[in-house]
Design goal:
Layout lengths: L6 E6 L3 H9 L2 H9 L5 H21 L5 E6 L12 E6 L2 H8 L6 E5 L18 H6 L6 E11 L4 E4 L2 E6 L5 E7 L4 E6 L2 E4 L7 H6 L15 E6 L14 E5 L4 E5 L4 E5 L6 E4 L4 E14 L1
Parallel strand pairs: 1-2, 1-3, 3-4, 4-16
Antiparallel strand pairs: 5-6, 5-16, 7-10, 7-14, 8-9, 8-13, 10-11, 11-12, 13-16, 14-15
Helix pairs in contact: 1-2
């Protein structure tokens, strides 16, 4: 058993003001840019201040004898989480999804710095509650949420909390063969395939499902099941439009075999952190063995 004190890893992403200053250099230039688009710098600055205040409160909540770290979302793929880490995501619900794919059982506490803007599905706690949450952490209920796995035939694997996307890197037409666990098989030309979890059922998959009269019923967030959708399948003499949606329950999988170059797999909107397929490579998509452990 490790004798190390727990380490709290605060995870955040750059605010809109941070992005504006990185692009335009000064507050005056950022204000001018926003005015040209009918927006006000004060509103952007207020959101930035709320996020900074939440991060300050979260940092002060860490017990003095615990270790701590602060990580930007852009650096997640280069950071090594330790088994004793406690992850505190300060930001939007999507930030929890972004960090989940890099974890292996570490508890996650979602802190909502802007409840007037963020629904709080995954970032459930106000900043001033964090001190008590960390103190009582061993006895708090943890909700396990299903994740989706995409495994290439060369051993590479990618996880997602909301969904994974398979398709062309530019989102143009991709050619591939889709195979299901029951032996069904069809060649496709489409703008990609989205496979989502119960957590992701309110996001991208929901947008697609609303356009389908025969959309499969979405799973619950903790249910070991996924739904999948083919986007804009194109009928031709060589490609079909019959296998365009379905559910994967338990150990069922979906296999996608590339029939071209430039095909990729990424999860939860993080396109730079992706798997790349060459012609003939296969990716198998199914319920992941890992789960997100979300502190309630």
């Amino acid at each position: 058993m490790s004798t190390l004190a727990p380490r709290v890893v605060l995870v955040s992403r750059r605010s809109e003001l941070d992005e504006l200053l990185a692009r335009h250099g000064t507050m005056a230039a950022a204000a001018y840019f926003l005015r040209q688009r009918g927006r006000d710098l004060d509103e952007v600055a207020a959101r930035h201040a709320a996020q900074q205040a939440a991060l300050t409160t979260a940092g002060a909540a860490v017990p003095a004898d615990w270790r701590r770290g602060h990580l930007d979302r852009a650096d997640l793929s280069r950071f090594l989480f330790a088994p004793e880490d406690v992850v505190v995501a300060v930001g939007q619900d999507g930030l929890v999804a972004n960090v989940a794919k890099y974890l292996d059982g570490q508890p996650v506490i979602g802190v909502n710095p802007a409840p007037d803007r963020n629904p709080g599905v995954l970032v459930r706690h106000p900043p001033d509650r964090l001190r008590r949450l960390l103190r009582d952490l061993p006895g708090l209920p943890v909700q396990e949420r299903t994740m989706v796995s995409a495994a290439l035939d060369d051993g590479q694997e990618l996880l997602g909390l909301n969904e994974i996307y398979f398709g062309h890197v530019t989102h143009q037409s991709a050619r591939y063969t889709l195979s299901t666990s029951d032996g069904s098989r069809e060649r496709h030309s489409s703008s990609g395939v989205v496979v989502g979890t119960g957590t992701g059922a309110t996001g991208w998959c929901s947008s697609i499902a609303r356009q389908r009269a025969d959309a499969p019923s979405p799973p619950a967030p903790g249910e070991a099941a996924l739904t999948w959708f083919v986007r804009e399948a194109w009928p031709s003499p060589a490609t079909g439009v019959t296998l365009t949606s379905g559910r994967l329950d338990g150990a069922q999988t979906l296999e996608l075999a590339s029939e071209g170059e430039g095909l990729v797999v990424f999860a939860d909107g993080l396109e730079p952190d992706r798997l790349e397929l060459s012609w003939g490579q296969r990716v198998t998509v199914g319920v992941a063995a890992r789960k997100l452990r979300l502190v309630m």
